[in-house]
Specification:
It is globular and about 50 Å long. Helix 3 runs antiparallel to helix 6 and helix 5 packs parallel to helix 8. The chain is built from eight helices and no strands. The chain has about 160 residues and is an all-alpha fold.
Length: about 160
């Protein structure tokens, strides 16, 4: 993160702390990837609590993420600065809804999400370019998460060995 932007956010501010992916977004190289990695411990903590708690946490992360990301972007004075990675956290949570957690599903889900997030195929790309504010920051990753979810569910159906 450029120093002038860094001065406008504080890790002591809980909104900034979350929007910056618990600090993972401050890693200068590939902050989106590190934001996605930061979601994995959260996924591992939530998964054993059951589908309803996981789903509730996921929906809450998407809704409050609009506020987290919008406020942090406004405080920074930059729309969707690379260090804002809560959208990746929420997208990863969406990817793993109703997914049995194994080494293989986590690995495949992570790779799928990163592919969709980086390549931004339709409709992700157009949404990323046209929707602004906190919703715009979140929506492309929500779509990437949903597309990753669908692909991961398909892969589990076709290759049940992923569960073992």
């Amino acid at each position: 993160m450029q120093p002038e932007y860094r001065a406008r956010v504080s890790m002591k501010n809980p909104v900034h702390f979350c929007a910056l992916g618990f600090g993972s977004g401050l890693i200068p190289l590939m902050p989106g990837t590190f934001g996605s990695l930061a979601a994995i411990p959260l996924i591992l903590l939530l998964a054993p609590l059951g589908d309803s708690i996981f789903l509730t946490a996921t929906l809450v992360s998407c809704i409050v993420g609009i506020w987290f990301c919008g406020l942090t972007a406004s405080d920074m004075g930059v729309h969707d600065h690379g260090s804002i990675v809560w959208d990746e956290v929420a997208g990863m949570l969406l990817t793993f809804m109703f997914v049995p957690i194994t080494v293989w599903t986590v690995l495949l889900g992570f790779v799928l999400f990163r592919i969709f997030d980086i390549l931004k195929p339709w409709p992700i790309g157009p949404v990323d370019k046209t929707v602004h504010g906190g919703l715009g920051i979140m929506l492309d990753d929500i779509l990437a998460g949903l597309m990753s979810f669908a692909c991961l569910q398909g892969a589990i159906y076709l290759f049940p060995v992923l569960l073992g």
